[in-house]
Structure formats: C-alpha cells, structure tokens
Sequence to fold (294 residues):
Amino acid sequence: MFKCDKCEYESKYNGDLKRHIKMVHDKIKDIKCSKCEYVCSDLCNLKRHIKTVHDKMKDIKCSKCEFICSANNILKLHIKQIHDKIKDIKCSKCEYICSTNGHLKRHIKMVHDKIKDIKCSKCDSIFSDLANLKQHTKRVHDKIKDFKCSKCEFVCSASNDLKRHIRQVHDRPITDKHMSLGEYAIYDYLNKNKIDFEREMKFKDLVSPKNKQLRYDFYIKSHNLLIEFDGKQHFEKVRWTKEHTNNEIIERYNFLVECDHLKNEYANANKIKLYRIKYTELKHIDNILKVLLT
Fold:
C-alpha cells in the first residue's frame, strides 16, 4: 500500500497517491478548461466539468425518483441526502449536521465565519454562497416567479418560498390562525426544529401606559432570548378599518411605539436578549432563526 505522509490516505497505486497529494495537500490546479476559466487538478474533473457545464449532459438517472445528473458521485450524494436521509457530517462548532462536506463548508462560511465574498454585479448585495446570489438575481433583478401555489394565486421565485407559503397559509391549524403570518412562521420553525419556547411571554412588572401587562411574542429559555415580530403598524400609521379616525390611527401608532420602547428597556435592564424581526423580513425568517439559534 502507498500511504500519504500528511494524512490517513492510502492506496494500492502510486499514481492515486500522487494525484491525492497534488489535489488535497499541494492544491495544484494546472489543468484548464478551453471553454471557460475553470481550472482543476485532475483530467477526470475537467471531463466531468465539460460534460456538466458546457455539454449539459445528464445521462445518469436515479432509480427512486425522476432525478437525473451527469456523474455517479452526484447520484450517490443525491440518494444519501434525499432518499436515505443520512446526516453523518457534524460541525465542530455547533450542533449542525449534514450529508456532504460541501454543505458543512458552506455552513461554517455563512454561520460561523460570516464571510460574504460573492458580489452581485447588478447591485451592492453580497453573499456567502453562489446559490444565494443566483436566487437573489432571479428574485430581485430578473423578477422571475415560476413557482405557483395550486390552492391560491400566490407565485414566487423559489420552491422553499412556496413550501413555506403552503405551510403557513393553507396548512395552518385553525387554532393558530389568530397569529400573524410572521408569528406563525416563527412558531412553525421552533416547533419543526424541536426548540422549547413560551408564547405570549409576560413579566409581572412589565405593564403598558394603560396599566395592562405587555407580552413578548416568544421566549426561548435555553438562549435567554425574546423574539418579537413587528408588523407594519410598528413602523407607520396604518388604517385597519374605514371607521378609524385619523386621531385614533395616530393614537394607536404612538401607543405601539411606546410599548415597544418599554419592552426594549425592560429586556435590556434585565439582561435578556431581545431580537426584533421586521415584517419586510418575513421570507427570511427561517434563515434568521437558523443563525440566531446556532
């Protein structure tokens, strides 16, 4: 057996060992694609790149679903992740587990290192991941909405947005429909991820200017964290019904602002973390909570 002196890798063939050292340890990329800027360490990788990117050939089919791809290793990852649902790769910095090294690297880059080095060419937005850039371009600049709800007129740019819409709007239990969409999105995420929380959290010594107890939307004891979802009415004067006079609208808005201020001060004075999610961030609640709770 030929053994690598830098790690645990070993092979029956010296050529495999040389290729391993070149790719993994020396990180030499001296094989260039003639059709684009792609470079790699191995001729097999170049052939796979050309087949996948330029020829767009997908000739390997999954036996369990309609998925097709261009390489056996991609098919193996698909089966592991989608069908077998194996998550055997663990983050050393938190409880995150996943199916691939690529997902782990992306998680560390986004969540722990907080690196954003991929810039949009059409605006000032920057991202940690190329997939997020593509989704941003599709949603914000190209304004493509190719996912449609079968139960209503809702359309969106991503399958995750459609799934979230169906879960939050159509599949909501009747008992939970008194919540706003934002509150239910938070409630749904916490339940789905088995995170213990309290709803409508009250403190005896926290009262409104009208001497009624104030409530926070959610409290997560394990993180000593309060979460509030702030609807549009927290930021501007909103007319809920035609019957409301201008004075009533102004009075309601001022009351909400004062209550929010009291909640902020109370959390700060009692050393409880408070995170406010704005109504414009509704579509990003899952990602916000994922980062907040890791």
